[in-house]
Amino acid sequence: MQSDTNLLPVDHENALLIGRIHDPRDNGPSVVAIRKGKVLDLTRQFPTVSQLLEHDDISAVVDAAPEAAQWQLDAVLRSTLANDRNSARFLAPCDLQVLKACGVTFAGSMLERVIEEKAAGNPHNAARIREEIGKAIGSAISSIRPGSEEASQARKYLIQEGLWSQYLEVGIGPDAEVFTKAPVLSSVGSGEAIGILKASQWNNPEPELVLAVDSQGRIRGVTLGNDVNLRDIEGRSALLLGKAKDNNASCAIGPFIRLFDDGFTLDDARNLEISLNVSGSDGFVLDGHSSISQISRDLADLAAQTCGRHHQYPDGFMLFTGTLFAPTEDRDAPGEGFTHKTGDVVRISSPRLGALVNQVTYSEDAPAWTFGITQLMRNLAGRGLL
After folding, report:
1. What is d(CA 234, CA 237) in angstroms, rounded to the nearest whole number?
2. Which of 172, 188, 220 delimits the end of a domain?
3. What is the pTM of this model?
4. Model confidence over 50-77: pLDDT tens digits?
């Protein structure tokens, strides 16, 4: 993994960034803010990021934080990219929030989900089915507003033609797909390995914008995420979604949560461009992007469909918002499309959010997830923070 990759946003000097650091001296996480090139420790006042996001004026909290130089930013960034577990390094920037995800929120990726289903998880059939569906549906469906009368008419037509799919239902129907991506505290951050199952032969990264939402349903900021996807397993049956999505090291978030302030708002988030680069040890390179402006459902609507009178999250939640990116470029044999190989370095970046960088391994070989809620509470209590 490149040690000179910059994790910080291009305008980090003016950004309000929060995250978590694991320092071996504490044997546990600390809540920090990164402002004007300095790392500010907020843990004494806010032992968890979840608690910090409940505060109405986080900017004032950061401005009042002591500037004791416990960590040097450049040193922590280097340790993070090197995944040096003997030095202070950045973790995924969330803790007690539930890890939720929305799927099929872009027309392009919606059609790829339909292809997965029709191919029954077999990548050899994907190219033929992609061509058939393209001829039948075309690109017009991408302009349909989910839940509209136009969408209802399209649904009737597709059913009549035998082309209706559960993925089209959540893509253009009234209800968004919302699922639990991974357990609380299980996400990995920049520099750490991301995992795919050894049983999977067709899989891909999913570069996404992730919303940081508090217990009241307020979107407080955003970050980057990799909703690692096993296409063959989900393609066999949608009931295997949990097996396709939730595995050891299969959820990456980071590097920081960029909070909304006067210089960065929800409208700015709505217009972000997210870039993807995959570099393999075999010399293969894949580039892609996801334009948030092309999303079918507004970010605020996705948050509202997740949290409300129908469902509460006392510690808040992190919400993956879906991706426009769906790789079809052949890596090995013609017609088989893209799939990961171990050793791939995945870089998901956006100028105003920084870069999330991970190396692919098998979930079975990634470091076991052992630091759960009980361990967090014990650690914070032992440090006199609770």
Report:
1. 5
2. 172
3. 0.89
4. 999 999 999 999 999 988 778 999 999 9
